Amino acid sequence: MNAGDERPRRDIGATGPLRTLLRRGDPYIWFTGSALGISLLLIGGLIAVVLINGLGFFWPGPLVRVTLKDESQWTGEMMRREPIPKPGTPEHLKHHRIQLKVGNRDLLGYDFKWIDESEITARDEPRDLVYVERREYGALIGTPALLTVDGAEKAREMKRIWPELKSLIERARSDRALVRKIEKDRIGAINRRIERARLRERRLDLAAQRQPERDFSAERAEIARLRERSQEEYRRAQAELEEVVRRAAGASVTFATTSGGDKELRTLDIYRVYAANRLSFFGRLRIYGARLWSFIVDDPRESNTEGGVFPAIFGTVMMVMLMSLLAVPFGVVAALYLREYAKQGSLVRLVRIAVNNLAGVPSIVFGVFGLGFFVYMIGGTIDQVFFAEALPTPTFGTGGILWASLTLGLLTVPVVIVAAEEALAAVPQSMREASYACGATKFQTIWKVVLPAALPGILTGLILAMARGAGEVAPLMITGVVKIAPDLPLDGDFPFLHIERKFMHLGFHIYDVGFQSPNVEAAKPMVYTTTILLLIIVLLLNMTAIVVRNRLRRKYKTSAF
Questions:
Q1: Is residue 374 located within the same domain as residue 476?
Q2: What local confidence, expressed as pLDDT, does residue 131 receive?
Q3: How far apart are CA 138 and CA 111, in angstroms?
Q4: How far is CA 321 from the centre of its chain?
Q5: Are both 241 and 346 inside the same structural domain?
Q6: DSSP assignment letter at 126
Q7: Crossing angle, helix 451-471 and helix 401-426, to 10 degrees?
């Protein structure tokens, strides 16, 4: 090699392997894989914390009695043990304290009590202590001392009271069901008939103002007869209700507590009672299953810190269904126009940019829009046109499940539009051309070829929309959700589906219990359990859509989705 042909040689000894490694992309693979692993660990940790704190709430723990140095005694279920913080002192985190769920809020004024372990001189688990779940004031913890039936003493002491008490509580459960049936079904139906008669009479008054020459005496007489019959039925139902309550309230139990004195309870007000320190493992498992089932199917009580969340479950599922029925058709039609019909240009690009930006608008903005446009404007107009006799009490001019669903439909329709347009774009152009070659029109091609092939991708947008809509709370707070809804939006009273009614929602229930409850410690487990339930419902809804999507994918294998 000539001297003039010598070229500078590249030193690859130090940088060559690193450059080769970077070129192959191995560090990027490790980086992305690590990010995925960390994300999965964070999600798994969050779910584990929720599950541990939520599902453990229903397990019936033993009842402990502690005696302190001042000879006072406290009984309750031990909730947790933690070190005592004393910053700046040698005793910092060296001593511990326990939290007891002492119950008996009506006697003590609180449900939970912290006790320093250094103050405890004795600790035992008496077998006669019972845990009572009652209508109000939370749990009661004590020992049955006296059972009375119709004012006469029936039994004393635990061993004689316990067999009688279990049968009385079973009877009280059927009595409560009968009371609920009379109150909500019979008396509720009568009240609705009386209200309809009042509105009908009000409608006649308005008609008489417009047509003073017309005689409405026959209609008024019919309304008067209907009102009289309804009031007579109401008096009979009320008398029957009072008789049931009087008969059911005849039995009562007096419980002796270690602090706070004695407490007498009607068996009608007792939902569940068990001797926690006498339960075997299977006995605790039975109580656990019964409490978990009650949480799912019962109505809430005690400011949502006791009882169940069935109205919130029903409202959440119904709202998601209505939202999906409103969002998906509009989203798919908009995507079809943008992809199949609209002439591609600056205007269409601006529309796509607007749709993408709309997906990033804060949800509370949609809530304010829904309140102003749907509730006040559309709902107020409907009231003035169709429900003038009910004014000034609004029917549709106030929050309801319809307006909440419409608001969330607007919130999620951009997601559906984007997913549907991508799904339509993924359908091969050759399928359209083959359809045209067979003589099909554009509409027939879209309806018979393009849409079926794009359905898996459209369902992906539906899944994303349901997942987002089910967890939104801010728009619902001003468009229809409430803390307690006495009536479900769907019942047996005509027209059966009452889309104007307010409703309960699991997401708002979590917010209300966690941040608005006056009893924070009692509400904390309900936050976790309701969160688990919301996750399960969203998962079930998504899994249903995923199963349908996978079946469509197998049917239309030519789809890129």
A1: yes
A2: 93
A3: 8
A4: 14
A5: no
A6: -
A7: 140
User: Domain for residue 5, yes or no?
Assistant: no
The answer to whether 111 and 124 have CB atoms below 8 angstroms apart is: no
**pLDDT attached to residue 16:** 67
- Could you tell me if residue 530 is inside a domain? yes
* Domain at 314, CATH number: 1.10.3720.10
> Is residue 354 domain-resident?
yes
Alpha helices in 337-484 (DSSP H): 346-358, 363-369, 380-386, 401-426, 429-437, 442-445, 451-471
Given 273, 298, 323, the domain boundary residue is: 298
Distance set, CA 234 to CA 224, 245, 314, 486 (Å): 15, 16, 29, 19
The domain total for the chain is: 3
Query: What digits encode the pLDDT tens for the residues 383-425?
Result: 888 888 888 888 898 989 999 999 999 999 998 998 898 888 8
Do 366 and 245 lie in one domain? The reply is no
In percent, how much of the chain has pLDDT > 70?
95
Q: What is the pTM of this model?
A: 0.84
| Cβ atoms of 330 and 458 closer than 8 Å | no
Contacts for 543-549: CB closer than 8 Å, 24+ residues apart: 545/459, 545/462, 545/463, 545/466, 546/459, 546/463, 548/459, 549/455, 549/456, 549/459, 549/460, 549/463
Is residue 131 within 8 A of residue 114, CB to CB? The reply is no
Tally of residues, the chain:
561
Instruction: Identify the DSSP state of 373.
Output: I
The range of the structural domain enclosing residue 523 comes to: 310-427+456-555
Instruction: Report, as an integer, the average pLDDT of 352-368.
Output: 87
With respect to residue 41, please indicate whether it lies within any of the assigned structural domains.
Answer: no
User: Which residue is associated with the tokens 């018979």?
Assistant: 448
> Could you give phi then psi for residue 524, rounded to 5 degrees?
-55, -45
